[in-house]
Description:
The structure holds 2 protein chains of 2 kinds.
Chain A: H1 6-15, H2 24-34, E1 40-43, E2 49-53, E3 62-68, E4 73-79, E5 85-90, E6 102-107, E7 110-117, H3 126-129, E8 139-141, H4 147-151, E9 159-162, E10 167-169, E11 174-177, H5 180-195, E12 204-210, H6 213-216, H7 219-227, E13 231-239, E14 260-262, H8 272-284, E15 290-292, H9 301-304, E16 312-320, E17 328-331, H10 332-346, H11 350-357
Parallel strand pairs in A: 3-12, 3-13, 13-16, 14-15
Antiparallel strand pairs in A: 1-2, 2-12, 4-5, 4-9, 6-7, 6-9, 7-8, 10-11, 11-17, 14-16
Helix pairs in contact in A: 1-5, 5-10
Chain B: H1 4-12, E1 36-39, E2 45-49, E3 58-64, E4 69-75, E5 80-86, E6 98-102, E7 106-111, E8 134-136, H2 141-147, E9 153-156, E10 160-162, E11 167-170, H3 173-187, E12 197-203, H4 211-220, E13 224-232, E14 251-254, H5 260-273, E15 278-281, H6 289-297, E16 301-308, E17 316-319, H7 320-334
Parallel strand pairs in B: 3-12, 3-13, 13-16, 14-15
Antiparallel strand pairs in B: 1-2, 2-12, 4-5, 4-9, 5-8, 6-7, 6-9, 7-8, 10-11, 11-17, 14-16
Amino acid sequence: xxxxxxxxxxxxxxxxxxxxxxxxxxxxxxxxxxxxxxxxxxxxxxxxxxxxxxxxxxxxxxxxxxxxxxxxxxxxxxxxxxxxxxxxxxxxxxxxxxxxxxxxxxxxxxxxxxxxxxxxxxxxxxxxxxxxxxxxxxxxxxxxxxxxxxxxxxxxxxxxxxxxxxxxxxxxxxxxxxxxxxxxxxxxxxxxxxxxxxxxxxxxxxxxxxxxxxxxxxxxxxxxxxxxxxxxxxxxxxxxxxxxxxxxxxxxxxxxxxxxxxxxxxxxxxxxxxxxxxxxxxxxxxxxxxxxxxxxxxxxxxxxxxxxxxxxxxxxxxxxxxxxxxxxxxxxxxxxxxxxxxxxxxxxxxxxxxxxxxxxxx
Amino acid sequence: xxxxxxxxxxxxxxxxxxxxxxxxxxxxxxxxxxxxxxxxxxxxxxxxxxxxxxxxxxxxxxxxxxxxxxxxxxxxxxxxxxxxxxxxxxxxxxxxxxxxxxxxxxxxxxxxxxxxxxxxxxxxxxxxxxxxxxxxxxxxxxxxxxxxxxxxxxxxxxxxxxxxxxxxxxxxxxxxxxxxxxxxxxxxxxxxxxxxxxxxxxxxxxxxxxxxxxxxxxxxxxxxxxxxxxxxxxxxxxxxxxxxxxxxxxxxxxxxxxxxxxxxxxxxxxxxxxxxxxxxxxxxxxxxxxxxxxxxxxxxxxxxxxxxxxxxxxxxxxxxxxxxxxxxxxxxxxxxxxxxxxxxx
Lengths: 362, 345
C-alpha cells in the first residue's frame, strides 16, 4: 500500500473493514504509508492520527485538514437460537440498501462472511412486498447451526461492514466501492503529504485522520482541541443525486464537476468568508469546484466550526452517489480536483489566509 | 472434472437471464462424459448418457438453467437506464446493488438508490418499484447508446463467499446448484449400473413460464421425469409448511399435480438405502417445471428440491452437505430399477 498513490491507494484503503470505534486497521495503514516522510505523527487515546507538517515559520497560522477513517457498518446486538445475528447499524444506513447484502464481520477468528437474510419474495404479503426492510427485522446469517455455534465466532458487540469490491467502471472514469466516505479524504491527505515532502509551506499544516464521524463527529473534537487550528478544511464525501429523473434543484451537486463546497448543511452554517475564499481559490487556480446546492447531511465541520472560540471552517466534499451503501460511486477526476484544491488553499498567500482565519460574514 | 462445489460456483459465475441461456460457453460443461449433447432453438441443452442395457426406458432429469434479472427498456441522460424485470428479482436487493449490463460487452453498473433527502416522510419506507429503478452505467448517453440496446439483459454482478459449516453464498444458485448436481451425478454413473437411458435437460425460460421444460419433454418424450429445483430454506419467520430445512438433505414434493407412484418409489428407495430425504406438500402444484412437464407433455414427473435461502437475490445460500446428499440420493434413485413403476408402466 505504501507505494500506491491516488485512486489505487483509495482502492486499498476502501477494502479495509473499519466501522466507527474499530478504525485501528486504517490508522495502522496510514502510519505505515507515511513512515519515512518528514511529518510528525501522533496517535491519541481516542484513535485519531495526526500528521504535523511543520511550516517555514513565515506565518504562525495553523491549518488543520481532516478526514475521518471510519465507515458506516453494523454492530451485533443479539444471537438467535438458530444462530442468526440481530444487529443495529453503526452510522446512518437506509433500510433499502440492507436486505440480501453480503457483509464482513470482525470475528474472534479473523474476518468472516455473512449475508443479511431476507424472507423469500414469493412468500411476502402484498404489504411486505412494498415495504423497505428495517434493520430491526433483519438478521445476519454467518452459516452457524445454533446460538452456541455462532458464539464460537461472534458475540454481542461484534462489528462489521458491507462486503464490497472496489470497481472502476463507466469507461474507466467512475469508481465504485464501500467506505469511499471517507477513505477518499484519507487517501488525498496521504498523497498531499508524500507528494510535497520536499516542499515547506508557510503555515504549520496538521493532517488529522479522525475517528467516529459516522456516529458522533467526536474524534475530530479531540484533535481540534489539541491543535487549536486557525483554519479547518474538512475533507468529506457528500451524497448527491445527479441521476436521471431527479429535478436539477434536488441533485445537490454533480459528479465530475469537482468538490462540492458547503454553505450550509444540517450540522453547520458555514462562515461566508471561508466559503467564498474556497470557491475563489478554485477559480483562480483553474480547479473544478462547485457549490453544494442543498441543505442536507452533516459532517465533522459541525464539531470543528463551533469548537474553542469558533474556527474558520470549510467542508470540501467529493460528490458521491449512493452514499452509505456498499456502492458509493464517485468520478475519479473529482479525486484529483479535490487534492489540487486543498493544496492550492494551503499554498495561498499568508495575508489572505490570515483574513480567512478571522471567519465572519461578508 | 471439477469438484461438485467448484462446478456449482463455475456455473454461477455466468449470467443466464431468461432467453440468454445458450450464450453460456460450452466449455463450462463436461460434455465429453456424455454420449450425446444437443441444443434446441428455445435455449435448452440436452446431455444424454445411455444405459449398457438394450431398450432401457428414457429418464429425463430436468433442471432449469435460467435466472432472474432485468431488461433494458430505455436509455436516459448520463447513461442511466430504465428497466423492466425478467422473472421476479427481489427489489429489496436492488438499490445500490452491483450489476452487469450484457450489452455489446459486459458493462459494470450500479442500481441507483434514492438518497434520503429526496424521500418524503410518506414514502420513507416504500420499496422502489421496477418502474422507478434507474441503472447507473457511469457512461455518457452517447457511449451508452453505442454499447447498449433496448432488450439487453442485466444480471446481478457475481459475488460468492463461504459461510460457516460448508454453507456458501453465490448469485444464481437458483438453479445452477441443481444443474451442477444433475450433470455431476449422471456423469459419474457407471453405465452397467444404469437401468435407464438418462437425458439431463438444462431447460430455458423457467423464470418466464416454464416454456423450455415443456418443449423439451415433448421433444424427447421420456418415460418419466425428475425435476430438480431449489426450495425455500426454513427460518423462524416463514410458515414451516412452505419451506424445507437446510442441512437436512433434499426434499421430495407430494403434490396432486405430480406422479404419485414415482414419488412414493423415491421415498421408499431413500428409506431402503438410509438416505436423507425430507418431504413437503405443495398443492395444488409446486410452481416449477415439474407440473408443466406432467400436464403439457403427459410425462410422469416428480420434484426434488434443494433447500436455499434468500431466493432471487444476489446472496442465495445453500449448504454443501445438502448438495452432496442430494447427489447421493439422485444417484441411488436413477440406478434403482424400481423407480419407474405404477402409472408409468
